[in-house]
Amino acid sequence: MNCLKSRIHGRVLAAVLALAGGPLVESSQAAKVRAEALPGADFARYKTYQWLPTKVLTNTGVVENHPVIGPAMKEAINAQMTQLGFKEVAEGGDLQISALALTASIPQLEAVVFGGPDMMYGTPLATMGRYNKEGTLVVNLIDGKTNKSAWVGMIQESLDNKEGSGQKKLPSAAAKLFKKYPGKK
Q1: Which one of 10, 76, 139, 140 has the lowest number of neighbouring Cβ atoms within 10 Å?
Q2: Which helix (H) or strand (E) holds 55?
Q3: How far apart are CA 104 and CA 170, in angstroms?
């Protein structure tokens, strides 16, 4: 089970990278929203969902089931799923929800490029990196039967982990994000 959870959480991070690399669509409220659906996914058959542990990337690392942001993410996303006609179940959901929030802008080293015959001991020619953008909410809806992402969405808002602050923006961020959901309306 831990192997499956690791693969699913790895998919969330891969989805973040894939979405962040593409062009972002801006709404009238200046939130950057991007969503992708699995081609050929039958969204009409999805009726139930279950939660995987929420993840929050803070300046100290990834926190699973963050005590402040985690419940706020669940509440905001649950409201959208309910509006779409979904029912939450403890196990066996048609969809599994994996949600990630980034509350800190953190530089991340992606690669170091060496050249020449002494590649492991030579002077690096270049480094490649990126910044994890603070204030990002990512929602990955995973098909419970195939374990593939049916839909993944990302929105950049000013979310942070200070109590009474950024998490208040989660409901509106989730609402903007789920406008991109291709299924029930």
Answers
A1: 10
A2: strand 55-58
A3: 15
